[in-house]
Amino acid sequence: MDVSVRKKIIRFENGEKREQTAEVAVEYPLTIYVNKQELVTIVCTPEYLEDLIIGFLTSEGVIRGISDIDNIEIIEATGHAYVTANFVNQFNAKYRSKRYITSCCGKSRENFYFQSDASLLESYNETEIFIHPKQIFERMDEFENSSATFHQTGGVHNAGLTTPDGLICSRMDIGRHNALDKIYGYCLKNEIPVLDKIVIFSGRISSEILVKTAKLGSGIILSRSAPTELAINMAEELGITTVGFIRSGTMNVYTNGNRILMD
Question: Does the keyword Cytoplasm apply (predicted)?
Fold first, then answer.
């Protein structure tokens, strides 16, 4: 499916206007059923949908991991996904009444956040991964070069998983949470350990993004934007290194700077 389409626009520039076309991001509603019960409709970018489903269900505690899934059937034409699971977390049974999650960043995910997070999050104080500032700038450049749809549309968020030496994968979506869920699903499907990996992100590091990073299992998150106060407080408590405003040879280390090799 197309992740972007061209639309006619009128562009104003230097006091003049002209008609042209512009690339815009596609919004795609995906309704997920678990064991024939409707769970949620997520508005997303229509690619890597299986990764999104696996990452979402696991990060929200509906299932424990990919081994709880027997089958996923995705009908792209109608926007439906049918998951057959051999285990569903009964603590989250209330989620089975339908939720609609938009692509915006705000209370749309309120019903799914902070319900069971305390039992899912761990401390990352002992995570043994370190990175040099030079590698941070190199990884951010590599990450941005992989973000073609963002540069074409300006309407999506990007997330990636990297080592200090190279980018492993990147995913984009109109929903910032969805982009990270796609990364999570990719790691679960491919049995990629994350404790020695780094999350790299295009947007603001909010508390929800920090929670997603912790659930993913990474001890470092890098971003071109800044963290919020609550995200910083949570990162300090969990022992996660947060680095923001990575631009043109500058960056801000907000928490747990011991992993940044300032030699």
Answer: yes
What's the burial of 48, exposed, middle or buried (CB within 10 Å: 0-12/13-18/19+)?
A: buried
CATH number of the CATH domain containing 107: 3.10.20.10
Range of the domain at 62: 28-116
* Cα distances (Å, whole numbers) of residue 73 to 33, 35, 125, 137: 10, 12, 39, 40
- Say which residues have a Cβ less than 8 Å from residue 106's Cβ, sequence separation at least 6: none
Helix residue ranges, H only, 132-218: 133-145, 148-153, 176-190, 207-216
**The total number of structural domains that make up the chain:** 2
Question: How far is residue 75's CA from residue 170's CA, in Å, rounded to a whole number?
Answer: 24
Phi, psi of 231 (to 5 degrees): -60, -40
The closest of 93, 253, 244, 113 to 177, measured between CA atoms, is: 113
Tokens matching residue 221: 């998150």
Phi, psi values for residue 169, rounded to 5°: -160, 160
Over its length of 263 residues, how does the chain's per-residue pLDDT go in tens digits?
A: 899 999 999 999 888 999 999 999 999 999 999 999 999 999 999 999 999 999 999 998 899 999 999 999 999 999 999 999 999 997 664 555 566 676 654 444 444 444 445 444 666 666 679 999 999 999 999 999 987 777 677 789 999 999 999 999 999 999 999 999 999 999 999 999 998 999 999 999 999 899 999 989 899 999 999 999 999 999 999 999 999 999 989 999 999 999 999 87
Please tell me whether the overall predicted TM-score, pTM, comes out greater than 0.70 for this model: yes
Q: Is 44 a catalytic residue?
A: no
Q: Cα–chain-centroid distance for residue 199?
A: 9
Residue 197, in any domain of the structure: yes
Q: Which of 44, 104, 105, 169 is catalytic?
A: 104
